[in-house]
Amino acid sequence: TGSVPVYIYRDLGGADHWVWFASANLLATAAISPFVGALSDLMGRRYVAIIGSIAIILGQIICGTAQGMSLFIAGMALAGVGTGINELTALAGTAELVPLSRRGYYIAGMTLTIFPFLPSAMFAQLISFHATWRFIAVLTSVWAFVGLVLTTLFYFPPPRPDQQARGGKAGLLMRTDLVGGILSIVGVSCFEAGLLGAGYQYAWTSAHTLVPLVLGGFCIAGFVAWERWGTQYPMVPRNLSKAPRTLRLTMVITFISGANFFSVLLLWPGEAYNVYGHDPIGVGIRGLPFAFGTISGCVVSLVLLSWWRGQIKWLIFSASVLMTVGCGCLSLATVDNMQSVYAILFVTGVGVGGIIVPVSTVATIICRGEMIATVTALTITVRIIGGAVGYALYYNVFVHKLVPELRTMVGGACVQNGVTDPAVIDEVITLTGASLVREIRDLPGIDEEIWAELVAAGQRAYAHAYPWVYYCSVVFGAVSVLASLFLGDISEMVDDSVVVVM
After folding, report:
1. ∠ CA(281), CA(142), CA(108), 5° rounding?
2. Do residues 133 and 40 both lie within one domain?
3. Shared-domain flag, residues 258 and 188
4. How many Cα atoms sit within 13 Å of 298 on the Cβ side?
5. In terms of DSSP H, where are the helices of 275-371?
6. Cβ-contact 415, 47 below 8 angstroms
7. Distance from C-alpha of 57 to C-alpha of 138, rounded to nearest angstrom
8. pLDDT tens-place string over residues 136-166
9. Which of 232, 247, 268 is the last residue of a domain?
């Protein structure tokens, strides 16, 4: 749905708060991830995976049948819960069944299973343009149902050996940090709510902005204090890793790569639509380089991780450099140079993919064997929160730059073409800002020739606003590059041991 929001809010309304369907999905994934390990120990990984698939199916059914944006957002949140459960189950379940030295190979193979859906932006565009966006929910529900059937029939993982050592189910419940989970997700959600609307929906000094920002800050501070002094069993155990400094650095890199990954993933389809034209095939093709670059970088980096047996510093450094340079070079995109942007998108994808899953795999190698689920949950949560915060920040910067560009370029184009009614000019600017350019044709005084001029002016305005997003990403990327230089050598930890024996 990241490539077709205009079709969705054209049908459902809610053009002023549609960004929350992406944020709600990400935050729900982050919220459930820390608890999946405990749920798996209580119920078994098989049943938790089944519940995750059911949550995705129900979430997509809600989305596909929604008659308003609020219900659609709720469906995306429920689907995010299922996504978090199943991603963690897949990564942790695979990691604990194979030797440390071969984890990269196996997780690379698992990653390749998403290959058929790399052109998902094109699929979504074609479905929405030629039929209805609701059929996307049908497709994803059917695919999730196939996964549910296969999981039910064939997934029987071995029992985890440490459950009884941790006091059985009662002991696991006592060790689940519900307070920490609530504080963390409420804090991030409130902070994001304030950030998403700050400065353009509401003034920075308004209660709508300050209350969630301050409340979010207090909750995040409370979470840190609770984890440090308030609980005996924190969400992030103090003896989690055999290489604490390397783990901390991988979390920093994961946060930043999540910010850049989800920002490009969610913002680039809009740029492809608003700057380069609305043809569904064209929009879909423009989404392919980043998708194929991401999976290429992911697979190559995972294979090299096992091939080099833990020599991670220069591997992650190279990926961080590619990510930072690629994101920065996306600022060079104009309405006239799309052919050059394809290569930049692919390089950016290789860099992001070379970090996003490989760093998570590194974390599973350097953690204690019984903590694989916990550290996998931690990396997913950090990545998703990084994505949610990064998306909110980048979207805020983008809108702040877009609004004045629209007023200048689109408003000026209206006057040049004889459209002088202030109400009509305001409506043209509003519709262009919401990407609802088709509706401009219905306004008084607008013919086909004037409409084409106004659309072209809107494309130029968008092209001037998007680069600021990528300027911001360079700052984040530079931190990732710097952090990667301090990663330690983990080759001594890469042996042929297996956590769970079949």
Report:
1. 75
2. yes
3. no
4. 25
5. 280-307, 313-329, 338-356, 358-366
6. no
7. 9
8. 999 999 999 999 999 999 988 876 655 555 5
9. 232
